């Protein structure tokens, strides 16, 4: 048994077990949506534009590659990044002739810098590694590891990642003197880690986000006014991970209108089928059905949790259409509280575990028993003990810090460094 666990920041899990020779618990970085490098190799029968490359002999950087996000060329990027839903297998496939690789599993390079060129927009876990972990004596690829994955996919399609993730945790545990492992996650990496173990997280969307709904409708410009959201939508709405992050019925009530259009009526979290039918995108509804049971109604993780997130940043709360002719491409956005990406009620979802008395996988009829559920559930039961009493839930909000800035905020650096330091003294 890897010991009883204590979760903490970004997603740490740990406990009072033995420490490594250096006295440090190994840390594994679990990235969020868009938080892993993606490479592609092409042998395409056709292209969407004459400027697009049809065949390559080697893998090249697809995400993040700023050179590919320029006018006209961005159409090539979208076609290479998009997924195609298979209604028979209920899974997704790459565009014809596109082979995708997510490099760097096990090391930190590809989750510290998303752009291999080192361009500043691609800086991800790098600062928190250098400001919070290196000063404590941590060494990259020795007791700090990375767990990148294909963030386009839903967790039900990532069985191979959970298998590799399990092996890496066990290897890190054994190579570091049987010291329990700390998982440090950001954004969607929180729910990913929760499906596997339990957590402490940074800016995690425990109940989804209204912004994900807006992405299906109109796309997202990735925070850049020069990138066309409507063009990017061609890839973004094909991702099961986007469907997975749609607002959960456990966080939004059936009476709350999140989308409104005069000619089509109001939409709540109970109306995804009608919404996708109205926008003529059946694959979106099918992907939501595939992932809906994997978010929002989880049992308490059974570990000490440190839940960190920003607050007080304008965040899409709902959206409307003044005229049916604008549906779905041109919504008018209504803003509320959150971190700019995730709504505050979803960010605070970890507080729901504060009164939990037990830790277990749920066995009610609402949960779809996928292969991933069974694999993860069996491994958790084998290696972790349920707590006798409720674990502590530590919750810290950072006013004015947005979804990505939380990885670059000094207050967060200090918090993570202090908590990890205390863990290593246990």
Strand % is: 15-25%
What is the 3D form?
globular
* Radius of gyration over all CA atoms, rounded: 21 Å
Q: Quick one: how many beta strands?
A: 17
Question: What would your notes on this structure say?
Answer:
- It is a single chain.
- The two termini are 18 Å apart.
- Helices cover 27% and strands 17% of the residues.
- The radius of gyration is 21 Å and the shape is globular.
- A hairpin with a 3-residue loop joins strand 1 and strand 2 (12-14).
- The chain folds into two domains: 6-35 and 104-423, Alpha/Beta hydrolase fold, catalytic domain (Rossmann fold); 38-101, no CATH class.
- Helix 1 (73-81) runs parallel beside helix 7, helix 6 crosses helix 7 (229-236) and helix 9 (272-278) runs antiparallel to helix 10 (282-291).
- The relative contact order is 0.17.
- The chain has a four-stranded parallel β-sheet with strand order 9-3-10-11.
- It is α/β, with parallel strands linked by helices and 426 residues long.
- Residues 1-20 form the signal peptide.
- Keywords: Signal.
- This is Group XV phospholipase A2.
- InterPro entries: AB_hydrolase_fold, LACT/PDAT_acylTrfase.
- One of its GO terms (molecular function) is O-acyltransferase activity.
Topology of helices and strands:
Layout: E1 6-8, E2 12-14, E3 27-30, E4 38-42, E5 60-63, H1 73-81, E6 83-86, E7 91-94, E8 98-101, H2 109-112, H3 126-133, E9 144-146, H4 159-175, E10 182-186, H5 189-196, E11 201-202, H6 210-218, H7 229-236, H8 240-244, E12 259-261, E13 265-267, H9 272-278, H10 282-291, E14 305-311, E15 315-320, E16 332-336, H11 344-347, H12 371-383, E17 393-399, H13 410-423
Parallel strand pairs: 3-9, 3-10, 10-11, 12-15, 14-17
Antiparallel strand pairs: 1-2, 4-5, 4-8, 6-7, 12-13, 15-16
Helix pairs in contact: 1-7, 3-13, 4-12, 6-7, 9-10
């Amino acid at each position: 048994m890897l010991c009883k666990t204590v979760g903490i920041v970004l997603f740490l899990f740990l406990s009072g077990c033995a420490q490594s020779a250096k006295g440090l618990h190994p840390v594994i970085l679990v990235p969020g949506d868009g938080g892993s490098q993606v490479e592609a190799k092409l042998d395409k029968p056709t292209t969407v534009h004459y400027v697009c490359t049809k065949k390559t002999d080697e893998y090249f950087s697809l995400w993040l590659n700023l050179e590919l996000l320029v006018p006209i060329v961005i159409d090539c990027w979208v076609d290479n990044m998009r997924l195609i839903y298979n209604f028979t297998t209920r899974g997704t496939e790459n565009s014809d002739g596109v082979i995708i690789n997510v490099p760097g599993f096990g090391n930190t390079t590809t989750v510290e810098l998303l752009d291999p060129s080192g361009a500043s927009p691609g800086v991800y876990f790098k600062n928190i590694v250098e400001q919070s972990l290196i000063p404590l004596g941590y060494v990259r690829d020795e007791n700090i590891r990375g767990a990148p994955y294909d963030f386009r996919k839903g967790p039900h399609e990532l069985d191979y990642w959970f298998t590799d993730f399990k092996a890496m945790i066990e290897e890190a545990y054994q190579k570091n003197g049987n010291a329990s492992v700390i998982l440090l996650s950001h954004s969607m990496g929180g729910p990913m880690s929760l499906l596997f173990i339990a957590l402490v997280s940074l800016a995690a969307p425990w109940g989804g986000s209204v912004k994900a709904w807006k992405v299906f409708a109109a796309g997202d410009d990735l925070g850049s006014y020069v990138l066309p959201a409507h063009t990017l939508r061609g890839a973004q709405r094909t991702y099961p991970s986007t469907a997975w992050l749609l607002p959960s019925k456990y966080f939004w009530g059936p009476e709350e209108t999140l989308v409104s259009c005069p000619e089509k009526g109001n939409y709540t979290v109970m109306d995804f089928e009608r919404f996708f039918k109205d926008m003529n995108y059946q694959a979106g509804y099918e992907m939501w059905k595939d992932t809906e049971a994997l978010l929002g109604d989880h049992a308490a993780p059974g570990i000490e949790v440190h839940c960190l997130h920003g607050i007080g940043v304008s965040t899409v709360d709902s959206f409307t259409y003044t005229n049916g002719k604008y549906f779905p491409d041109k919504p008018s956005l209504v803003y509320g509280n959150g971190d700019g990406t995730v709504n505050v009620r979803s960010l605070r979802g970890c507080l729901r575990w504060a009164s939990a008395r037990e830790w277990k996988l749920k066995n009610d009829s609402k949960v779809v028993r996928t292969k991933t559920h069974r694999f993860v559930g069996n491994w958790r039961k084998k290696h972790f003990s349920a707590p006798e009493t409720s674990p502590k839930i530590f919750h810290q909000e950072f006013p004015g810090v947005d979804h990505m800035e939380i990885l670059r905020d000094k207050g967060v650096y200090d918090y993570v460094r202090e908590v990890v330091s205390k863990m290593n003294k246990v």
